[in-house]
């Protein structure tokens, strides 16, 4: 009986044991690539599973748990200990937030912990991407093509069923940059054709990024879409290039030995720390694609419609608007919209048929892209036409283009519309006849007699004594004087000292304007200090930024307003005083300091 009551007492006292949660780190700092051991101890029954909060760049790896049950003086205590390894590849100060655990229905939070990661490191590769994928080895990497070690380009026609293009056709192409998966890259230029045979159009500004395997190696693939066109028939290599800065890991460098048996002695961390310890090689490279020969075929001359203007692609009419009533000699507006894919730049407005019944005038076209590479879309046209013939007739729009997929010309015709044209027919414009050229008569050659009385009277006054000659001399002297003045003004304007002084005055004036317009104390003192430094620099023949309070005190007395102003400016800069209202006495001190700066300040 006594044993029964003792068991009941033990159960009751065990329930009275307070629930506790404690967390510890075995060290407060670790080098990058190493870890500290975190121990979380939960005392109490019915404890829930703890969840460690996620912290950016901090790796938390569970290492197991243990349970202990102790009985002492009639008290039973149950505790569960969870062990984690905590570390990072990136140096910095990390804080592990409070860990919440539910024990006996109560939520208990631990205290936050701090961990400092020392040393230099690199960002960890994306999860799930090993340094050496399956099927490759460092030896294989050493034997790979050196020209492609830092990456390469590929270019191919998006339509794989065709290996040729036509003159004027914008063929959609897929451009891909293949970079090693564990590399870092920065682009230094856009994609450029290597030769002059092809022109690159509308390369997408937001490329796609993916991870792909090629020849047993994992790559980060950046994909652009665009178009290529040629203006001359023949067979040409299509090669593209891209300037980039790429950093890859030096697989030939010896790997440092990492201590074994530590908290990070786990296969999960092997690839991470091996990548961290491997040095990087950075190089400015030009990624090039292999030359891919593309055949450019000329547009056929057989069957070319009269209205063909060079559009190459696949198009259709979306809409057209032709007025129902007209009057001969009066223009009206026609609108049409065509959509499809191809070279919209060579697309002109459709023709109004029958052609002999209308006179059309050039209008405007507006293109709306349907994709990022502007290969597909629609183009709207607005143009004016004047009917030449009256009466009832049928009108339609016609558009001719070349279909590269079929290798043939096609002509689209909109649905005919019955319209009524009022007025009389306008005769055809005939070119005006060129005026007859009248040949001048040849003058008769011979001697013509002259009467002596008709001869002009001669004068014996010398040329230098005539008034006109004196006027000419005065005008010439005036022009010479004006030229001398203009030359002096030009030399003065180009004088380096004068230009430098003018630039200094302008900079000082702008700094003072900025100080007067400042709304906060730091902005006022920064602009005012710059104005004072520029003014003193001109007087002392020193760089403005080199003039400090110590330089001023060595040249100007301490009771000078200039010295007092710099004292006040330094006090606000180094004391980091909060921004507030600019006091009037500060502006007055600035004005007094500027007024005291004279040539005698030297």
How many angstroms separate the termini? Answer: 109 Å
What assembly state would you assign to the polypeptide chains in this entry? single chain
The mean pLDDT is: 77
Strand count: 30
Question: Mind telling me the C-alpha Rg?
Answer: 45 Å
What class would the helix/strand composition place it in?
alpha+beta
Which band does the percent of strand residues land in?
A: 35-45%
Number of domains: 4
Shape: flat
The largest pleated sheet is described as: 5 strands, antiparallel
In DSSP terms, counting alpha (H) and pi (I) runs of 4 or more, how many helices?
Answer: 9
- Unreliable segments (pLDDT under 50, ≥5 consecutive)? 8-17, 120-144, 445-455
Q: Helical residue percent? A: 10-25%
Description:
With 602 residues, the protein is an alpha+beta fold. The protein folds into four domains: 117 residues, Immunoglobulin-like (Sandwich), CATH 2.60.40; 144 residues; 123 residues, Particulate methane monooxygenase, b subunit. Chain: A, domain 1 (Jelly Rolls, Sandwich); 106 residues, no CATH class. 22% of the residues lie in helices and 36% in strands. Strands 10, 12, 15, 16 and 17 form a five-stranded antiparallel beta sheet that branches. Strands 23, 25, 28, 29 and 30 form a five-stranded mixed beta sheet that branches. A four-stranded antiparallel beta sheet has the order 1-3-5-4, covered by helices on one side. The longest helix is centred in the last third of the chain and has 27 residues.
